[in-house]
Q: What sequence folds into this?
């Protein structure tokens, strides 16, 4: 692994189903983030984690949950998917959370909820 | 409230220069970032400004005026591969990034 990976690449999901999007980084970055990107809107922060063992809510957290059991992994769970959660989801990481910190992005997961 | 504004789309000619503007309002200020995003791909970092002035990096330069809440990205000697969306993002008081919707840059031969 080099950088940050996400799985699956794309998924079609029936409404009401539970889904976990996976994110793994091998850069030993402390901070990790989940964004959604919708046409005509900027990236919107869903949840973040400043360090392993801690998480925080972003701009649009409703319907999503995260965990950060270790430094490398930051899964995003949709407990009961709804069509409005159709989006492209990007996971990102940065060395630290404060001040200047370039964020590195994974390739994204394209999720369609029907 | 917090807001990042940038034009939706711009068109330029190969070999020319283009300036993409961004105005921002964030609670607190912790720097202004520019990212490039090719269609169907992830954003990648281009530049970061926290002090007023111009930062030059090869064909790309970024300018910041904190007093005006204004930044621009300047792309010189445009190449076809520069066709992409350019995302402006401001760091707020919680060190989270507030993102603009992006400017789609179309390069014509």
A:
């Amino acid at each position: 692994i080099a950088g940050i990976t996400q799985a699956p690449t794309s998924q079609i999901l029936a409404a009401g189903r539970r889904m976990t999007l996976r994110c793994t980084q091998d850069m030993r970055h402390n901070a990790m983030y989940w964004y959604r990107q919708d046409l005509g809107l900027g990236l919107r922060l869903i949840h973040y984690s400043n360090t392993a063992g801690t998480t925080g809510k972003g701009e649009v957290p409703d319907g999503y949950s995260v965990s950060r059991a270790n430094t490398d992994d930051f899964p995003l769970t949709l407990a009961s998917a709804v069509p409005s959660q159709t989006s492209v989801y990007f996971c990102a990481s940065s060395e630290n959370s404060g001040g200047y910190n370039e964020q590195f992005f994974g390739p994204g997961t394209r999720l369609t909820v029907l | 409230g917090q807001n990042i504004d940038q034009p939706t789309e711009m068109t330029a000619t190969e070999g020319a220069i283009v300036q993409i503007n961004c105005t921002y309002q964030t609670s607190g200020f912790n720097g202004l970032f520019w990212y490039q995003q090719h269609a169907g791909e992830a954003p990648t970092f281009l530049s970061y400004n926290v002090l007023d002035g111009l930062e030059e990096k090869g064909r790309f330069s970024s300018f910041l005026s904190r007093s005006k809440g204004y930044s621009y990205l300047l792309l010189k000697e445009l190449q076809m591969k520069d066709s992409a969306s350019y995302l402006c993002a401001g760091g707020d008081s919680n060190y989270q990034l507030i993102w603009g919707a992006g400017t789609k840059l179309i390069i014509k031969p």
The mean pLDDT of chain A is 95. Chain A has no helices and eleven strands. The CA atoms of residues 46 and 58 of chain A lie 5 Å apart. The longest strand of chain A covers residues 87-94.
